[in-house]
Amino acid sequence: MFFNLFFSIIIIQRLAELFLAKKNERWMKQNGGEEYGVRHYQLMVMIHSCFFLSLLLEVFFFEKTIHSLWIVWLALFVITQLGRIWVIYSLGKYWNTKIIVLPSSKTISKGPYKYLKHPNYLIVTLELLIIPLMFNAYITLICFFILNQLILAIRIPYEEKILAENTDYAFIHNEQPRYFPKLKK
Fold first, then answer.
1. Under a CB-based contact definition with an 8 Å cutoff, are residues 119 and 112 in contact?
2. How confident is the model at residue 105 (pLDDT cuts 50, 70, 90)?
3. Per the structure, how many domains does the chain have?
4. How many secondary structure helices (H) and strands (E) does the chain include?
5. Taking CA atoms, which of 67, 84, 87, 95 is between 20 and 30 Å from 76?
6. Name one GO cellular component term (predicted).
7. How far is 21 from 99, CA to CA, in rounded Å?
8. Whether 141 contacts 132, CB under 8 Å
9. pTM value?
């Protein structure tokens, strides 16, 4: 019962995010934005879609039950969702699941972007760990954690290259870490 509710909420959330991303995409393209990385984006969408399918199948096929520490995993999941909202709010109309660049725009350096180059990728990576852990879906966890790291190994350098070529990204995010904030000494 909990799995069905949790899974449904995540799917609804993702569909709402895709709606927002499409709205932002239209605005960006109407204002001169150009899309990059279409081929690897399609692969990324496939990986993330298959993650949910795999989770669903593993939980039902292997009759997985909720983890004994589910409340901890749920709390961590809620924290990642607050981070996701912070990312979306900080980027505003520039937030998207695709790489779309407005060449004349200034790089966002507020919110979590003050501390990290790619907070959204960190959040997604954490979700791909937390969600399967909550339901003891270890096959899904291992397979999709690895697949996500492989696609990010392609996407992040490509995205940074495109942003550096078309915006002030390299200047703004020169010293920032990709995933984990540096601790001040």
1. yes
2. confident
3. 1
4. 6, 2
5. 95
6. membrane
7. 11
8. yes
9. 0.90
Q: Which residue has the tokens 């993330």?
A: 48
CB 129 within 8 A of CB 137: no
Residue 123 within a domain: yes
Task: For residue 99, give the 3-state DSSP assignment.
Answer: strand
Residue 101 lies in a domain: no
Q: Report the DSSP beta bridge partners of residue 101.
A: 34
153 lies in a domain?
A: yes
**DSSP string for 26-75:** HHHHHTT-EEE-HHHHHHHHHHHHHHHHHHHHHHHHTT----TTHHHHHH
Q: Give per-residue pLDDT as tens, 3-54.
A: 999 999 999 999 999 999 999 999 999 999 999 999 999 999 999 999 999 9
Asked if residue 55 lies in contact with residue 132, where contact means CB atoms within 8 angstroms, the answer is yes
Letter for the amino acid at 47?
Answer: I
Residue 183 lies in a domain: no
For residue 68, give its domain range: 55-91+107-170
Rounded-to-integer distance, Cα 74 and Cα 71, Å: 5
Quote the distance between the C-alpha of residue 41 and its chain's center: 12
